[in-house]
Structure formats: C-alpha cells, structure tokens
Amino acid sequence: MKRFVRIMVCAAVLALGLCACGGGEQKNNVKGDEAASGYAGASVITLKKDGGIEYRLVEDFGEDYSEDALKSLIDESITAYQKKAAQAQVRLKGCQKNKEDRLAVEMTFGDWNAYAGWNNYFLDYMYASEMGMDTAAIEGSTDGFFAGTISDAYNAGYGLEVTLNAVSEKNAKQTVSKSDLLGMGDTHIVILERGSDDEPVSVECFGEILYVSDGVSVTGKKSAQVDAMDGYGMIVFQ
Predict the structure, then answer these.
(1) Are 145 and 201 in contact (CB under 8 A)?
(2) Which of 5-9, 13-17, 38-42, 147-151 has the highest mean pLDDT?
(3) Pairing of strands 164-166, 209-212
(4) Of 50, 70, 79, which Cα lies nearest the Cα of 126?
(5) pTM score, whole prediction
C-alpha cells in the first residue's frame, strides 16, 4: 500500500502527483480485466485544457486490499477532504480489481489544486485510518505539484532556477534557464516533485511539449515520463 500512496502523490506530483505509459493513443477509461492487464503497473496524469486533471493507475496489490475496501477508503477521504476544501472537485470514477489482483483506479479533479491537495491529504488520512487515529486534524497542502502558466508557477513560489532541454532541434534555443522561462510567462508548465524510490509517472499534456528537465523522457509530442529522482521534474508545453 505504501507503493500505491507514493504513486498517488505524484507528482508530485505529486507529482502527485494522482501518476500504461503516456501516449495520446491510450484509452481514457479503465474497465475490466482487459484494461487492467493493459495498464499494469501504470500511473498516468492527464492535463486537460480546461484546467481539469484525470488520473489513472493500475497496480498489483496482491491480497492486501480488496476492491471494496480501497474504494471505500478513497470515497471517505474525498468526503473528509471536501469538508476542509469545499471548492475542491474530486471524483472517483472507477476502482476495479481483476482475477490477477490488479486494481485499476481512475479519478478526476477540477484543477491542479484539488489534485495536489487531495493527494497530500490522502497520505495522512490513510495512515490515520489504519492506525485508528482521529482524522479531523489532518490538513492538506498543495506542495509537490503544479500545473499552469510559467508566470503563475513563479508567483506560486517556484524559483525556476533550472536548466531545461529542448525536445526538438527545431526549437529556437536548445536549453532555457530562469530568464528564458520568465520570458515565456504564458507558456504552460507542469512541475512534479519526485523521490528516488518513486515509480515512474506518465504525463499527458494538452499541448506540444517544448522543454523538459533532467529525469524526464519524452514519449510523444504531448506526452512524457517522469522518472524517480530527488527533486522536481518539469515539462514546458504550448
């Protein structure tokens, strides 16, 4: 279960990070045994143009958690989180287990704040629930994940003291640093905090990817994989 929580937080990333590797050809819905076998060990964050986020995960849990038990835990945590963050739009779309004990989880979030906030909250909620502790005092934060414009990321406190690499030789600059990024203020960026023992997470963007940080592998024009690292994975896209 600890492995699942690290993936759910992805990104940061959270990266949540709410984490099949990310081409745009993949199906959006995860249903039944066929989908579960096709997405085994997969964590995908999809950024929508309207600001919403979809999260998909298929993981092998063995007999540790039943489908109903995990669904109940997630549903309960959503209800508890929304009492603290009334505007947060968080929805569990599906939670299914197949005969091989692979569990497919699919969630949607109204925006990046809801995604990051619930993921961070869920960590403490799950621990408190398992230990029989009071969950009322748990506070959520949005640390570890961001999705929006570069200007908004900077205003949110991300210093952008980084060097990013171009994904194509056609880019005007093959590397960009803080001053370049600030000059691209309206361009979009996703930032995911990762740990050295985290599972890879795929990110599907709504626009074409321009630059990525070290530890990020481009898998398509609009998709990339963020690997384990001690720090932040960054993706800049149109």
Answers:
(1) no
(2) 147-151
(3) antiparallel
(4) 70
(5) 0.80
